[in-house]
Write a structure and sequence with these properties.
The complex is a heterodimer of chains A (439) and B (496). Chain A has 439 residues and is mainly alpha-helical. Chain A has helices spanning 2-7, 24-58, 77-83, 88-92, 100-122, 128-151, 154-174, 182-204, 214-241, 247-259, 262-272, 281-286, 298-326, 330-338, 343-370, 375-380, 392-401, 405-438; strands at 18-19, 22-23, 60-65, 68-73, 93-94, 211-212. Chain A is globular. Chain B has helices at residues 2-28, 47-61, 72-84, 100-104, 113-117, 129-135, 158-164, 172-182, 210-219, 242-253, 267-275, 287-292, 358-372, 374-380, 394-397, 400-404, 409-423, 437-453, 459-477, 479-490; strands at 35-41, 64-70, 92-95, 137-138, 141-142, 145-146, 153-157, 195-198, 279-284, 303-307, 313-316, 321-324, 342-343, 349-352, 429-430. Classes of the chains: A mainly alpha (439), B alpha/beta (496). The interface between A and B is large, with 44 and 37 residues.
Chain lengths: 439, 496
């Protein structure tokens, strides 16, 4: 019956059989709506409606008044305050004037992006929508780089550069031109030149350096934390695929940190980083660091947060990679062994291709999760000293807690946009390429 | 078998009789069948006495009290959303009077003035004047019943000061001098150098409270109703001036005599350091007094307390510069020193929801009245675990409860003397109670101070930034409205 209706020629009346007065086709047609409606409603009510309300809230001012509350539409005022007004320093950081070398790095980055764009336009993958999205991504990435160049402290940059170096190394390990990919060499050289110049300018002019805002701090935690978690997790996973005694025991032990509540871990690391009363205080004092407080300095406090976060989330990466590693076929490895492959070759040509799909997925999950980091800095430092360890989520939470609902909704939207952008770039730019290569 | 049956029958009969009799007695009680959910923070302090005394109150009145707790940082928001959305999960709240204005203006709190006037057992006149007229009131009406008295004091180690031959500090400059002299001495006999000053400076915790204690004696001279936060005419913040900048410098200088990780310490940490004998001076609420005599304390009998230090130089509000204290500039000065003890937080107080039925309101009020009556309150304030500090005049006059609580005659006299001196000061500083004060203090002041302490800003830059951002919030919320609320809390303009 249904088939008959669908095959009916337009313009010609269809024969309808009637059962108890209601057309069966009508029943058939409405059934799908009736069945889908609850699910659609739930999605609308639970996900989209709050998103829209908070979007509206971010453009308004919220106030409790007699008998309820009052929401006044104020346009972009909340965003304006965050990007250009009194909260700019808090969100984006204190900008140091750009040196000629900063500009060179910026030019190199833009040049690299234009070069990639050029290749895209000339390739047969070119689509108008993809082109527009790439332009948007370029502007966004350029703005982020500019902010980081002007606002990161030296130690922040060293950490940043280390993570980038690790990532680049990891990326090019996957490709066939392992040691001299031209883009890698250009970016690497640019970073080294810039860093050494930055170091000199800092030694001469200590105030010439900027200070990171909550956005840069969040990005630092995300990149530093995820890179560390991935490589530690991979290392532990590889270790446990060897035939070592006590394998099962350690598998459970390595998983434990993930089961502890983040607040508990915050307190744990507060105690461990305490140079005066903590369990490591004899070590600190013996090392001559009794007068030094890890949580009292911006860079070391950030390091403490990254270590705590890594300690908690490495097990997550570890357990997923372990499953992938254990899925690698033993026969292939044995065959390679017989053919005389060394350990590095086996890892590089047999194991890596097998675990890349899982690796990219686990990195994506951790990437998105890390943007929402709040427990560790909140417990460990309260975002201090200054704003050194304050993440975007913490900033939004403090605003919400004090009744500034509009401002914190605006911050939450900024976080949503940045996290989505980074996830999309990761999926399109890195994950897809790696998966193609594996195929 | 039959004996068992008889026994069973007997027990059932007895139970039935008991429940019936309790039913009968319950019917006679004024609030029989009323059940109240009282919201406060996780404690254990504050919630402890509220829970402990609930069964006694139930036996007296028939009202069943459930004490519900949320983490401190969520309390303000929980009360606000519960009342604003009309959820009304809670009938009464124990909270900081500082937040009162955000609840009174939208009409969430019941006006308790007629209840207090009709309640002889409460002995309202026995409550310290400051708490009656400022903490508990807004716009001339009473909205909360004080259960606790909160203000900052300076504590000192009597033995250490004796050793270095110095007197307890009366000004902030003396505080720095004592801290500098004592810093590095071994104060608890463990062979390690200890600290001259311990102040909890962690961001997001108590870091921003102390600056008002240091700045107030420079800024407020003419009595409580003058106010220490804003100009009463223009509503300009009293921040970007020589007095506040000097206070910032003093606050930062205390870093030099404190533990290296002081910027990451909350009061939990500094109180622990105090009781383990690692500090010569500390700035804190009344809690240190009872903690020092608690079990495990190494400073029992060695803890002295003085009124929060003052200043001999005060702000001339017309010029923004500091001038010497004189009879005119500092009418409340003691020996030429202007003291302005800061009633930080204002003391935990009970308020009743205005949106519940009359019987529940009566029961909730009766419960707070019961908690605050001298028979209960005068015992609770002597127990460290309650978190309650003295606020009634009778609590200072009779030291028997204090001696029973573990104090020696001398330490009780010193501790109560310091509190009484603060409480009697006509120049006490009321905490900021304008709408959304959390944004002024908990967000802006906290963040800028923390950046200043971490050397990201100079004192002048910090003062200018606080001023600009406070002005921005005021303009956003309506400068006239904010000014009116500010004057209301200072009691200089009746009615709301």
């Amino acid at each position: 019956m249904e088939l008959e209706n669908q095959l009916a020629i337009p313009g010609q009346p269809t024969k309808k059989k009637r059962t108890s007065g209601i057309p069966t086709s009508w029943l058939d047609n409405s059934a799908r709506y009736v069945l889908i409606a609850p699910a659609v409603l739930i999605v609308l009510v639970m996900a989209i409606f709050p998103l829209l309300v908070s979007l509206y809230l971010s453009f308004s001012r919220f106030k409790f008044v007699r008998g309820g509350f009052e929401i006044t539409f104020i346009g972009f005022a909340n965003y304006n305050k965050l990007f250009f007004g009194s909260e700019q320093r808090h969100l984006l950081g204190k900008f140091a004037p750009l040196t000629p070398l900063d500009m060179l790095v910026m030019a190199l980055a833009i040049g690299g992006m234009v070069y990639l764009m050029y290749r895209y336009v000339r390739s047969d993958r070119f689509r108008i929508f993809g082109f527009i999205m790439r332009i948007v991504a370029m502007i966004f990435a350029g703005a982020l780089l500019l902010m980081l160049l002007a606002s990161l402290t030296l130690a922040g940059w060293i950490l940043w550069v280390l993570c980038i170096a690790i990532l680049f190394y990891a990326l090019f390990l996957y490709t066939k031109t392992a040691y001299y990919h031209p883009l890698g060499v250009i970016v690497g050289a640019g970073i080294i030149i810039w860093l050494s110049a930055r170091l000199q300018s800092v030694l001469i002019l200590p105030n010439a350096i900027g200070l990171p805002g909550t956005l840069s701090v969040t990005l630092m935690f995300v990149l530093g934390g995820v890179a560390l978690q991935y490589f530690l997790g991979l290392g532990l996973g590889l270790l446990l695929t060897q035939n070592l005694p006590g394998k099962r025991f350690f598998r459970v032990v390595f998983l434990l940190p993930m089961m502890i509540t983040p607040v508990g871990i915050g307190f744990l690391f507060k105690m461990m980083t305490d140079t005066l009363k903590g369990p490591f205080s004899p070590v600190w004092i013996a090392a001559g660091l009794g007068d030094f407080a890890m949580l009292g300095q911006g860079d070391t406090a950030r390091l403490a947060v990254i270590i705590g976060d890594t300690w908690q989330w490495t097990p997550f990466v570890f357990i997923i990679l372990l499953a992938a590693l254990e899925g690698v076929s033993k026969e292939t490895i044995e065959a390679a062994l017989v053919d005389g492959a060394n350990r590095f070759q086996m890892f590089r040509y047999l194991i890596l291709p097998e675990i890349i799909p899982v690796s990219t997925t686990v990195i994506l999950i951790r990437l998105i999760e890390s943007f929402k980091l709040i427990d560790m800095p909140n417990i460990l430092t309260g975002g201090g000293p200054g704003t050194a360890t304050e993440t975007l989520t913490l900033q939004a939470y403090v605003g919400w807690r004090s009744g500034d609902l509009g401002g914190s909704a605006a911050l939450a939207y900024i976080l949503l946009i940045v996290a989505t952008f980074c996830a999309i770039v990761f999926v399109n730019f890195i994950r897809r390429r790696l998966l193609d290569w594996v195929k | 078998m039959t004996t068992r049956k008889t026994l069973l029958l007997f027990v059932v009969g007895l139970l039935a009789l008991l429940s019936f009799s309790s039913f009968v007695t319950a019917q006679d009680l004024p609030f029989a069948g009323v059940e109240l959910d009282v919201l406060t923070f996780t404690g254990p302090q504050i919630a402890e006495p509220l829970q402990r005394r609930a069964p006694d109150f139930e036996a007296l009145t028939g009202a069943k009290i459930n004490v519900v707790t949320v983490p401190f940082s969520d309390l303000y928001q929980t009360i606000l959303t519960d009342q604003a959305t009309g959820t009304l999960s809670y009938e009464a709240f124990v909270f900081a009077p500082q937040w009162m204005v955000d609840y009174v203006v939208p009409g969430y709190l019941e006006d308790l003035t007629p209840y207090v006037e009709a309640d002889a057992d409460l002995q309202w006149e026995d409550v310290g004047q400051f708490f009656r007229e400022f903490s508990a009131s807004f716009g001339g009406s009473i909205y909360t019943i004080p259960l606790d008295g909160d203000f900052h004091m300076v504590y000192y180690r009597t033995d250490v000061l004796e050793q270095i031959g110095m007197e307890p500090p009366t000004t902030w400059d003396e505080y720095l001098a004592v801290a500098a002299a004592a810093n590095g001495m071994d104060m608890n006999g463990d062979g390690e150098g200890d600290f001259g000053s311990c102040i909890a400076k962690k961001r997001g915790e108590q870091g921003y409270w102390w600056i008002t204690s240091i700045a107030a004696p420079f800024i407020q001279t003419q009595g409580t109703s003058q106010g220490a936060f804003f100009d009463a005419e223009t509503f300009n913040p009293l921040v970007n001036n020589a007095g506040f900048i000097r206070a910032l410098e003093i606050y930062k200088e205390t870093n030099q005599y404190g533990s290296p990780d002081e910027l990451a310490m909350g009061v939990g940490d500094t109180r622990g350091m105090w009781t383990s004998g690692r500090c010569a001076l500390t700035l804190d609420w009344g809690d240190i007094g009872s903690l020092a005599v608690a079990e495990g304390s190494q400073v029992n009998g060695l803890t002295g307390a003085v009124i929060s230090p003052g200043s001999t130089m005060v702000l001339d509000r017309a010029t923004g510069e500091l001038v010497e204290c004189s009879a005119e500039t500092c009418p409340n000065a003691i020996d030429g020193v202007n003291h302005a003890p800061f009633a930080a937080f204002g003391g935990w107080s009970g308020g009743v929801s205005s949106q519940i039925d009359q019987l529940a309101k009566d029961a909730a009020y009766a419960y707070f009245s019961y908690m605050a009556q001298p028979a209960q309150a005068n015992v609770d304030v002597t127990i460290g675990a309650t978190g309650f500090n003295p606020y009634r005049i009778s609590q200072f006059e009779d030291n028997t409860a204090w001696l029973a609580g573990g104090f020696s005659e001398e330490s009780a006299a010193v501790y109560l003397g310091a509190i009484e001196a603060s409480l009697n000061s006509p120049n006490m500083v009321l905490d900021l109670r304008i709408p959304q004060n959390q944004r002024y203090q908990g967000v802006v002041l906290d963040e800028v101070l923390s950046r200043f302490l971490a050397d990201e800003l100079t004192a002048a830059e910090a003062a200018a930034e606080i001023e600009a951002r406070w002005n921005e919030i005021s303009d956003e919320l309506g400068r006239e409205d904010q000014l009116a609320a500010y004057l209301n809390t200072l009691g200089t303009q009746g009615g709301n």
